[in-house]
Amino acid sequence: MSSSSSFSRTLSEEQPIAALWGCQLSGDTRSCVLKEEDDLLEHLVLLTMICLGADAGDELHVVAVDSKNICGDHKPVPIAALRTSVLPMISLKGLELVPPVTFVLKCGAGPVYLSGQHITLEDDAESEAHEEELSEEDVGDEEDDGAP
Predict the structure, then answer these.
(1) What is the pTM for the complete model shown?
(2) Which pLDDT does position 138 carry in this prediction?
(3) 63 with 50: CB under 8 angstroms?
């Protein structure tokens, strides 16, 4: 599992709302990039867990994230330092990143697994228009049911 994988839950066929996301960092694959989508919607990456694989050696594994900061600069920031005998896993809450995001294994041979959710936020105007269409269809169905 050296590349990203996802599982989608959808409201409609075209627009995913939330997708499970994961990647593996190791000596062979030291970085994982989540690219920016060209769909004009807002995307978020919620990182929820980082853990060492069963084959990871008892050495320090440092994972960093490289994302734009407020000034627009890219600078890798360490977010986890794991060691098999001390801290093999970390659970994160509230770490929201906006793509493009790069996760980097700064030191250690891995494997290190990252998991979370890739969230697509719907445009409010599109969402309201879709809700109005559904409510109009419901009203039309009710009128058809009442006809003699």
Answers:
(1) 0.69
(2) 62
(3) yes
